[in-house]
Amino acid sequence: MKEYRRAIENIIKSSLFEKGMLTIIYGPRQVGKTTLAKRILKEYKSEKGYFNCELQSVADIFAAGNPESMRDEFGGHKVIVFDEAQTIPDIGRKLKLFIDTYPKTAIIATGSSSFELANKINEPLTGRHYEYFLSPLSTEEMLNEQTKIAVKDDLNTRLIYGNYPAVYNAKNNSVARQKLELLATSYLYRDVLRFGAVLKSEVLMNILKALAHQAGGEVSYNEIAGLVGIDRKTVLNYIGLLEQAFIIFRLTPYTNRKRDEIKKLRKVYFYDNGILNALTNNFTSVGSGRDLGGLWENYMVSERVKFQKNHLLYRQNYYWRKRSGAEVDFIEEYDGKLVPFEFKYNKSGVSKGAAIFTEEYAAQSAAAVRVINKDNFLGFVS
Description:
By secondary structure, the chain is of the alpha/beta class. It folds into 2 domains: 7-133, Rossmann fold; 139-380, Orthogonal Bundle (Arc Repressor Mutant, subunit A). The chain contains 19 helices and 12 strands. The chain has helices at residues 9-14, 33-43, 56-64, 67-74, 91-101, 114-121, 139-143, 148-153, 155-161, 165-168, 173-185, 190-193, 201-213, 221-228, 232-244, 273-280, 293-310, 352-360, 378-381; strands at 22-26, 50-52, 79-83, 106-111, 129-133, 218-219, 248-253, 266-270, 316-321, 327-334, 337-343, 370-372. The strands form 2 sheets. The protein has a 7-stranded mixed sheet with strand order 6-8-7-9-10-11-12, with helices on both faces. A 5-stranded parallel sheet has the order 2-3-4-1-5, with helices on both faces.
């Protein structure tokens, strides 16, 4: 499969050899974490420094628990990668001992579950690790390989099949769909289902399907609980775990505590449109009468979030809506200012609701509401 230069690669390498620091690469399964890690190993002539922590032989080395034996087994490489490190018990303490004893060795740990890996690393390595996020391919990364015209021409396919590397490389849409069906059935959720018998795969899939049908819209946890047949608290637990497995993410509403503003409802988005469509079993092409509102919004929000993470842009993301129905799809807040956006696949005109936001928040807005459509989206996501 073709390899792509990932946007965060140079950022990772810039801090890789900072003494006593660990590098963590988070991201869902199958987005290319292993490929990126091996690419970095090759650059530093440390190809044999790759270890898959899901293998029992690697787990047994960690079980010994002392840095000297780990060094003997893992070798004196300049860079060492521990792939899917969340599978190793007490990994944080063991890596701390290793780093303290051999501070000049660069260590990269990858994880497809922040729930497991972050919990195991944060306490023993507080302030001693850098975290990076690897997503499915971003538009910006596609532009490294193709012209702007080619990326625009491919837009409608990406809206339906998404950007997972294996799907992006598929020779035709039929193969792309097969790969997505495989991803969307169980492989992506392996880490979520590892958290205990209380988590049931059937319930998880029903929640995911309900979320997929509401992508880009405000989600009622009570409604999902009723559809699935579980209580609201359990729905929230599942959604939290899906976030930490990098399948979905949520936006909170922006509010200035005005009485007529929505304050509690959340919007849910998928990191990849292909997974969303696989869950709804709808691969209907663009232009065949399909409603593109939620699909376009999910793609634009997820691509913008990728851009933020790839460039370490620390921004707060919101949406805004009033009880009257006036709304703004996406708002970035940074440096005390608000930057609002609307997403319309074909149109360019600002809605009445957006005009209301501009009027009410003129003093805090860095710009008027900008409409992102199929003609100007590249400037928003790259």
